[in-house]
């Protein structure tokens, strides 16, 4: 039973990350078409600074399952969230400092990706 719940959680996390990435790619391609390559790459960079930490969180958070491993389950969620927050901050700061992309495009990509992180579970609620 607990392995099944863990598998459902992993599956949902994978769907959320995949949806975030797909929406990010579409937003980048639309922006490249409408505006410029530089703007589209800015959206892609900003969005990846949310997708990559979220994927890493999913890997860390769903390492353990079961009642006997309940402390490890809780610990892995806290560690995963901490890693996610720190990595998100580092990637955003790097994207802002190292690239010459317009910060508006970077933050737009980041916001689109984070909003998809909130919406995607609702979309997949019945399928899990």
From TrEMBL:
Pfam families, alphabetized: ATP-synt_I
Transmembrane segments: 12-34, 40-62, 74-98, 104-125
Subcellular compartments: Cell membrane
Sorted UniProt keywords: Cell membrane, Membrane, Transmembrane, Transmembrane helix
Top-level taxon of the source organism: Bacteria
Chief place where the protein resides: membrane
Membrane topology type: Multi-pass membrane protein
Name of this chain's protein: F0F1 ATP synthase subunit I
Originating species: Idiomarina piscisalsi
Organismal lineage: Bacteria, Pseudomonadati, Pseudomonadota, Gammaproteobacteria, Alteromonadales
């Amino acid at each position: 039973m607990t392995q099944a719940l863990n598998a459902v959680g992993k599956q949902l996390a994978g769907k959320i990350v995949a949806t975030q990435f797909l929406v990010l790619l579409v937003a980048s391609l639309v922006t490249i078409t409408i505006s410029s390559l530089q703007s589209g790459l800015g959206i892609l960079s900003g969005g990846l600074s949310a997708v990559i930490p979220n994927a890493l969180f999913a890997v860390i958070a769903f390492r353990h399952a079961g009642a006997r491993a309940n402390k490890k389950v809780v610990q892995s969620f806290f560690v995963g969230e901490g890693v996610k927050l720190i990595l998100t901050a580092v990637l955003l700061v790097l994207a802002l400092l190292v690239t010459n992309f317009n910060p508006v495009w970077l933050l737009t990509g980041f916001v689109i990706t984070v909003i998809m992180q909130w919406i995607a579970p609702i979309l997949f609620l019945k399928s899990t």
